Amino acid sequence: MTRDPDLQLERQIERIAGFLRDAGSVTVLTGAGVSAESGIPTFRDAQTGLWAKYDPMELATPQAFARDPSLVTRWYDERRRKCAECKPNPGHLALAWLQDALEGAGKGFTLITQNVDRLHQEAGSRDPLELHGSLWVWRCTSCGDEREERQVPFPEHPPRCECGGMRRPAVVWFGEALPEPVLAAAWRAAEGCGLFMSLGTSSLVEPAASLGRVAAAGGARTVEINPRETPLSPRVDVSVRGATGELLPVILSVLEQVAP
Ligand code: BV8
Ligand code: ZN
Asked: Which residue range(s) make up the domain with 14?
């Protein structure tokens, strides 16, 4: 194994491009790290300003909403305001290009995301599986009405439904079950793929964190891109230390050269 980090990185990139060329179907799981280069703080980044004294793990729960619906919806509204200023980065755009290239070649492609910012859709990705819902969709806790809300900020917290009920973000909170059909589709996409890529996720939140193991058990090649080591790192074929916004475009440019 070479000691030269640049040469090692170059070899890792070539291996991943080869996996992409050879795989009949590719499944990608993204986490908050993919949106980091768009300026959206990751879940584990220290909260800033007003929110510095709150732990996201505490606020992203049904108990927090029941206890203080105004505080929790103001936190989400602040995140919506932040997201509204942010644009997809080269990592998001590379994944949209990859989907076009693979589906254009008659191959399978599934994008599974833990992110709630919808930047993948804004970048052109089609039909991503949103395991944890979306910051932009809000559900009435009384009548269940659910709709996309793009007005930023809300006039009141919590925002209200026409029926007078409180609206909550249609995200999956800690302790809540993931939407069954979405989780089942993600599980199948992990089990049946030839290549699984875990991008920008700390691989700590379940059940999303199990998808890499499911893919490997199904015989897939496995790849991880993350500046830091995660619990998945020792278990994948290639774990690259780096930023997705930088590395994904490089990998795809190598793929374009090697693809038949
Ligand atoms: C459930 C929406 C059951 C809300 C989110 C088993 C063991 C232990 C605990 C559990 C378990 N099973 C379930 C649990 C409990 C819990 C859990 O997993 N806890 C963990 C913390 C131990 N899971 C749940 O509660 C789930 N529900 O299992 O329900 C059930 C079943 C039936 C009936 C009732 C209940 C629900 C989990 C979903 C929670 N909601 N989001 C919101 O966003 O406000 S999760 C939230 O945190 C995000 O969506 C995201 O998914 C997650 C954070 O993970 P990451 O995306 O990885 O982000 P993170 O900040 O952690 O890491 C960023 C990474 O990026 C880092 O590694 C960093 O190095 C890297 N990075 C930084 N810059 C870059 C980069 N990478 C690449 N490029 C860069 N430039
Ligand atoms: Zn209502």
From this structure: 5-40+87-132+177-258
Q: Which of 76, 174, 187 to mutate to test the pocket of ligand 1 (most atoms within 8 A of CB)?
A: 174
Which CATH number do you get for residue 57? 3.30.1600.10
Does 142 lie in the same domain as 70?
A: yes
Taking the centre of ligand 2 as the mean of its atom positions, its distance from the CA of residue 160, in whole angstroms, is 8
Domain final residue pick, 171, 194, 221: 171
For residues 210 and 237, membership in a common domain is answered with yes
Q: How many domains does the chain have?
A: 2
Minimum-distance ligand 1 atom for the alpha carbon of 114: 51
> Is there a contact between 193 and 216 (Cβ–Cβ < 8 Å)?
no
DSSP symbol at 43:
T
For 32-52, write each residue's pLDDT tens digit.
999 999 999 888 776 666 677
Answer yes or no: is the C-beta of 180 below 6 A from any ligand 1 atom.
no
- Tell me the CA end-to-end span of the chain in Å, nearest whole number: 28
Nearest ligand to residue 76 Cα: 1
In which residue are the tokens 């080269």 written?
90
User: For the whole prediction, is pTM greater than 0.85?
Assistant: yes
Contact 33 CB / ligand 1 (< 6 Å): yes
**Contact predicate 198/233, CB 8 Å:** no
Provide Rg for the chain, Cα atoms: 19
